[in-house]
Each structure stands twice: as structure tokens, then as C-alpha cells.
Amino acid sequence: MKRTYFAPKIVAAMVFLAVFFNMSLPAFAESAVSDTASNVIFVNRAESFVFVPDSGDLFQNFKGVMPGDVLEQEIIVANDKSNTFQVKIYLRAEVPADTNIDFLDQLNLQVAGEHAGVLSDAPASEAGSLGENVLLGSLKPGDTETLHVTLAVPIALADAFQNARGEVIWTFTAEEVPVAQVPVTGGSDAPVWLGFGLLLAGLFLFGLKQNRLRRHER
Questions:
Q1: Residue 13: other Cβ atoms inside 10 A
Q2: Domain range spanning residue 100?
Q3: In the predicted model, is pLDDT for residue 30 greater than 70?
């Protein structure tokens, strides 16, 4: 039987894309790569996910962005090494109806897996292929899958979006991979027990024959 564990909606990872204009700074394209990686760890003892940072905000590098920025964030998804089984981990994206859709329309969000390849490359306002659960990988205990997320902000982003904020909800789901078990039946060891029984019977008959020969010799 499969057991499926869902990350509760309340602990689903959320990305906050924010643009804060500072007119004293020149607007030119930059590429920012931070060493700050986020982590999503499935822990069976809790039957849920552990997020690092524990605030659940996995997109620490997407803060205070400027027009022309190209920002990157690594998210390491893991099956905790203390688990005793393999899990399939899925990702689904959802754009809330009450978020700033016009703002998200201006931003491009690309999500690529280390082994899964490009999962989505579209405006941040569109869930795209991530609108349904997408398999990130089937992970054994201790295995990881790194997501590379790239946020591109157009250099011509209008002043009308100053201090704007958009939200995209990511939901992670873990499904235990059942281990195939060979059914044990009473007949599976029959040849072994039959051979052992014949051996005992042979020894018993041999013992009787020897006793009879000794009696005749007397």
C-alpha cells in the first residue's frame, strides 16, 4: 500500500518577488548569485517537510530587486538520510488570485532541476507546466535534487511598479515508493524440507537394516 505525504498548505513554500526602485542608482543589467541556498527536506518522523530557513521563504535572493536584475536561487530538495524508504517528490505552483498579476507579468521565472531539466520558463504570473504536480525526482534516503531558479527583471520596468510585490505559492508533495516484496508461502521451502525428510528416512532405514544384520550374525 502506498502512503502519500502532503506538505500542508500552510507550510508551502512561498516566493515574494519585490521590486524597490532607487532612482539614485543606475538601472543596468546585473547578475546576482548568492551562496545562500535554501533547503526542502522530507522527514518521515514528522511526516512533513522541513524548510530552511524555517520561515518557509525559500527565495532569499529575490529581495530588493532592481530593473535589469537577473537573480538566481538554489533550492536543495532532499529525502532525509534517516528515512528508510525512497520517495517521489513533486512540485506544484499556484498564483494567488489576490496577488499583483500585472507586476508578475513583467518578470520571467525559470525553474530547472539538476537532473529533471527545465521545468518551467514563463512569466511569473503563469504556473505553466507547474500548474500540476511535476516530478522532481525519486530520491533514496540521503539523495538530493537541486533546483536552479532564475528571476529576470526587464530593464524597462515602469515606475508604476515601485514597491510592488507579487506572490507565487509552491507546494511540495512526497510519495513513498513501495518496496516490492516476494510473498512467502508454505510451499516455497518444500524442496528443501522434502530433501531433509528423505535424508532422515534414509538414515532411519539404514539404521534398521544394520540392526537386523547384527542380529542374524549373532
A1: 22
A2: 4-176
A3: no
